[in-house]
Amino acid sequence: MPIMEHKSMAWRMSVNERKFIETALASDLRVDGRRPFDYRRLNIKFGREDGCSEVQLGETHVMAYVTSELVQPYRDRPNEGILAIFTDFSPMADPSFEAGRPGESAIELGRVIDRGLRESRAVDMESLCVVAGKLVWSIQVDLHIIDNGGNLVDAANVAALAALLTFQRPECTVGGDNGQDIIIHDPKVVEPLPLVIHHLPISVTFAFYNKGDIMVIDPTHKEESVMGGKMTATINSNGDVCAIQKAGGEGVMPSVVMQCIRIASVKAADITSKLKNAVEVYNTERALRKVKRHPSKMAHQVSVADITLEDKQVKDLPRHQAKMACQPYIGSSQDDEPKVDTRTSTNADGNSSGTHADAFVGGPSKWDPYPLRVGTSQVLGTLTVVKEEQVVSDDHRAVECSLDHTTTSSSGTVSVSDAMQKSNTSKSLKDAVKCLLEFFLPVTMDFWMTSVATEYWHFAVVKVIVLCAIRCLCQWLPSKLMKAL
Amino acid sequence: MAPMEVDRADGRTSNQLRPLSCTRNVLHRAHGSARWSQGDTIVLAAVFGPKAGTKKEENPEKASIEVIWKPKTGLIGKVEKEYEMILKRTLQSVCLLTIHPNTTTSVIVQVVGDDGALLPCAINASCAALADAGIPLKYLAVAICCGLTGSRSVILDPTKIEEKKILAFAYLVFPNSPISVLPKGSLTEDSEPIEAGIITSVTHGAMPVVDYFNCLDRGYAACAKISEFLRRSMESQAPSDLTKTT
Q1: ipTM of this complex
Q2: Which residues of B touch A49 (CB under 8 A)?
Q3: What is the structure's pLDDT at B143?
Q4: Biased-composition ranges for Polar residues (chain A) (predicted)?
């Protein structure tokens, strides 16, 4: 019976393709149009659970999963936890990868990443100790290579780091009757803890051609099959070299190696910032998911602030309308917007006060501020609508509505920075000061009203200070930028 | 025997499936690939087209299918081997094996998320990947998981938590319902429509015979819906580039 002829059917590059790649590299051209020291596009995604990441570097696709369990420590290190890295070169990544025992390149990849994480003390092992000599946490990182598009080491390294940064292990305490029992707390009851990671070692891979003269960063699969030698440098953003791996291949001059390391430190800083941004976004999203478990708390605070705003604004109405007339480029004066917002949100609710919101959209002259008192329940009901409308509209709305939501100060700053771009470029210093004063006065009055009317005055103080600072920044910065240009 | 409405944790009724999503051609090196998700259960399947030669114990007169199941974490154990065997037998009945004799088609399944109904999800993903690779098939296989609760009512597509609580569940695989131009009723044989043939049925836990037949009926109806979804998703995605790099 014929046996499968896998080895002989292994993919070999044609002579034409090989010559093409080498000739192109001699004139600093790469097949996919990149320059020699450009990375492909890095895309970092996270799964629903903690410690689950998916990284795409061009065509290379790697998934990483982090799990933890309590085990006995190694005898020679009774105070330290255990970090184990399993690499799986899945047969779906490349027809030449075979299922079963990991091959040489799989083991090499696992070792390079292990050196970068464990031996450079990036992940703190001593914080994983529960009972010295008896129980420690063992962190296992499973790397699945899904698609081999070249440069697996770098992609797998970023995936492992992303998964470790977002992983949270359950809290456990020593207690019980005899003081020896380990109680592992349910993650839903007690907040799980993230791992302590001191620095982020990023690996950067170089491929050498033409007897070490030409080097490129982040080789693709085809470039890898033509290369003469390969070197991986693992560097963190502080400039510390965590690991260097150059196993065989063509000899390169030490000066070339030094140049590679210098380039690697620049690239490492770049990748570190991308990684940190992605983790930030995921962490805020995770926090939001947790916050949504208590909607009643948020709504209560909203209702209070809204009602007092209206009280104050009755007095300010004529002043505001006058300001609006003379400051057209701002868009509209600050405190009209939130009332309008309340109106439009109640409009969405289907109340009779909706008609007045429509009236306002036309212009200030048609605006009728207080046809109806807005009840607490109505405002409560419009909580989500108010939140949605902020992000879309003007800076003022966003700023004021962040007064209403204690949790969304971050979204407030985001919309304010949007407004920075929108605001007119022809602002002068005087106008900036004027705007500042305009903002400051109503805000302080608002502060007094809120402090008098409610018991949440301490919240109001913090909010006011933060918002003044933000407003100052966004007023001054564009004017300074214009001067600089 | 009117079935009682069951209260499910995620608010679904007993006949409601989780949101389905199918993306094909997600990998660059594989000949065919598909990512199928049912709620939080996500499976990625890749197919490498016919390679010359068959394994020792396989019949060289026919094409053979090799399945590799990769769990999310941990080493391969008995459970994974069982899944590989069930998947292989199911796919063997779906593919036209006599077209390319003495060849091996590899199907690799990677579990990305497991929240109940893992094997049906994997079967659906594998079929979509086979279609993406252009392997000749008789029909597509559509799989569903039916669970039987303690109150003798059938729930479709249980999550992992639900799977632990219910009495028994069955993974059922039916062929894709065809769009036929012939008048209804002409395709029947002994008053049973031909396309209602069960390809695979795997049960866990003990259930009375009547309830098993209930599950079959419900499963068949649900599979009609899933095969509609599958047909729509295959027709909507533009035909992928025929030349793929190896």
Answers
A1: 0.86
A2: 113
A3: 95
A4: 343-355
